[in-house]
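Action item from last meeting closed. Structure (578 res):
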């Protein structure tokens, strides 16, 4: 049983064996050998061999009956092997309704023995942390597969995201055009800019001034698209890059990655890269095992979600009980600290309130068409124009921070301060950033449904509690030992002997299903995709050169020089005479 618990926690047999030895006191008390622990894994793989896809789908159907909010869809090839699979639990779907305005989507590999591509949909919660909306297994990275994925995602969520950020996969881009025509598709800037240096001519690769100029053109989101295009063309002419194919292609795609083209897009400022997906992938890598079958991987996924949601509950509790340091001591800052989550208040809202007090001044004010206009001179960002309509108590700013992030800018805060407001109007407190107690409540409710404590887990838990109660009292320890010894003798006469059939029963309990006698959905074949190798993410030429330069140099016996090669791969330099 301990071995199965270790496998569920993604712990190998030898580590589980050593842990169990420490738990019971010594090797003589374990009751089996390290090889027996390894054999459990072998027998478990034999139990699920050829039927794990069917077992997983049966479990999904059982889960859907007990929790109608759970959604899943699958597709098979003509030979009934599993082709693709999507699922999202009720908690993920509820979270999408709160935080699904912007979604990051990125593939991760080496998560299962079939090398299926594991692709989570990731968003940002009200604490600014990653949150999972659903996950997909696919065997092909083509337009058909991604079209199926996005259609099932929208069908399950009941809506499409406003912003979807991905890498430059052409199949993914085509699928988004077909299935999500009303979603603004954004390409990850990190993936694009990582290629910048290696796409330059050799004489410009080390030009730091060019890189700085390029970054100053592409990163700002306060410039107009026409200003960006003018600066881009000037830079291309200055460095004679107009004929460079990569720069030409990137300019043609500018509306999909340059921030200037997203300044009017709602919630476009949540993220510019898929770094949130990278954080999500890191979470899954800590919980999954590349040798897992489909059912085991789902168990590991559940463990990852429990960890993610437990962290959310912990942070939410800290928000409700903790206190914050106020800088300006203004009424509006105090109000903001009570409505926004602590992280968002400290890293976003408070920064804007402080800047409003320290760096902003009104250079001009005038009335036009029943609206008050304020030209706010910001020593950092220049002049921004704030419009206030008293008819509907509406504030807008030319910097459009509220459009891009649903957070008020320093310019509006300065006008509010001049108007002697003590509270932020409710219409400008976005629910996605506020301290929402109902979110923590439904997360806790979901976890009570998701956890599947078996009788064995409860028995072990009660035993641990008993040990805890007698800790430090030697007399009670002896009494507890005698009581347990008596119970062991009692149930050894009443219970079932430990044999092969008992092991099979434990496997059934572990998988939550008996081994099917008829299988209408076969496990997928091992797929070969662009990321299924064992070498990790494909490195660019620039990264390889940097790594090579950082390696310590050694003396080559052939050319007698300090270099990053040896006599076996010496480029053929003449031997230096001693």
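Sequence:
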């Amino acid at each position: 049983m301990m071995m199965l618990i270790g496998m569920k926690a993604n712990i190998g047999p030898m580590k589980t064996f050593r842990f169990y030895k420490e738990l019971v006191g010594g090797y003589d008390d374990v009751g089996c050998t390290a090889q027996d622990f390894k054999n459990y894994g072998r027998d478990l793989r034999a139990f699920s061999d050829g039927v794990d896809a069917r077992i997983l789908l049966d479990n999904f159907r059982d889960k859907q009956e007990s929790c109608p909010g759970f959604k899943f869809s699958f597709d098979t090839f003509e030979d009934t092997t599993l082709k693709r699979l999507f699922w999202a639990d009720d908690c993920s779907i509820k979270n999408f309704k709160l935080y699904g305005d912007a979604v990051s989507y990125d593939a991760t590999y080496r998560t299962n023995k079939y090398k299926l591509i594991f692709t989570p949909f990731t968003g940002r919660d009200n604490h600014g942390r990653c949150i999972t909306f659903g996950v997909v297994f696919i065997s092909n990275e083509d337009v058909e597969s991604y079209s199926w994925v996005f259609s099932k995602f929208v069908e399950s969520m009941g809506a499409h995201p406003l912003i979807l950020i991905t890498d430059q996969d052409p199949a993914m881009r085509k699928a988004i055009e077909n299935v999500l025509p009303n979603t603004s598709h954004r390409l990850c800037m990190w993936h694009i800019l990582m290629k910048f240096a290696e796409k330059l001519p050799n004489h410009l690769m080390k030009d730091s001034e060019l890189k700085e100029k390029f970054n100053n053109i592409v990163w700002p989101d306060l410039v107009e698209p026409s200003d960006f295009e003018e600066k881009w063309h000037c830079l291309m002419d200055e460095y004679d890059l107009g004929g460079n194919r990569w720069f030409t292609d990137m300019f043609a795609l500018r509306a999909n990655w340059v921030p200037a083209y997203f300044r009017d897009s709602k919630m476009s400022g949540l993220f510019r890269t898929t770094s949130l997906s990278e954080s999500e992938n890191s979470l899954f890598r800590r919980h999954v095992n590349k040798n897992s079958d489909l059912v085991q991987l789902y168990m590991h996924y559940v463990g990852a979600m429990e960890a993610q949601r437990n962290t959310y509950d912990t942070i939410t509790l800290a928000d409700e009980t903790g206190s914050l340091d106020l800088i300006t001591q203004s009424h509006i800052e105090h109000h903001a600290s009570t409505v926004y989550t602590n992280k968002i208040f400290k890293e976003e809202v408070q920064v804007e309130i402080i800047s409003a007090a320290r760096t902003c001044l009104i250079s001009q004010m005038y009335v036009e068409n029943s609206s008050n206009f304020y030209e706010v001179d910001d020593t950092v960002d220049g002049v921004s124009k704030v419009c206030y309509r008293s008819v509907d108590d509406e504030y807008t700013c030319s910097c459009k921070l509220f459009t891009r992030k649903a957070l008020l800018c320093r310019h509006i805060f300065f006008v509010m301060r001049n108007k002697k407001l003590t509270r932020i109007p409710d219409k400008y407190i976005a629910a996605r950033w506020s301290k929402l107690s109902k979110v923590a409540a439904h997360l806790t409710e979901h976890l009570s449904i998701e956890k599947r404590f078996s009788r064995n887990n409860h028995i072990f838990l009660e035993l641990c509690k008993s040990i805890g109660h007698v800790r430090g009292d030697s007399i009670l320890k002896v009494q507890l030992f005698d009581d347990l010894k008596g119970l062991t003798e009692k149930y050894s006469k009443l219970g079932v002997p430990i044999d092969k059939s008992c092991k099979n029963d434990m496997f059934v309990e572990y998988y939550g299903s008996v081994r099917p006698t008829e299988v209408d959905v076969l496990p997928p074949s091992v797929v070969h995709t662009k990321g299924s190798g064992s070498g990790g993410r494909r490195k660019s030429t620039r990264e390889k050169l940097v790594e090579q330069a950082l390696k310590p140099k050694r003396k080559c016996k052939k050319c007698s020089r300090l270099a990053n090669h040896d006599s076996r791969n010496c480029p053929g330099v003449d031997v230096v005479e001693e």
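Note appended to the action item: Confidence is low (pLDDT under 50) at residues 440-453, 574-578.
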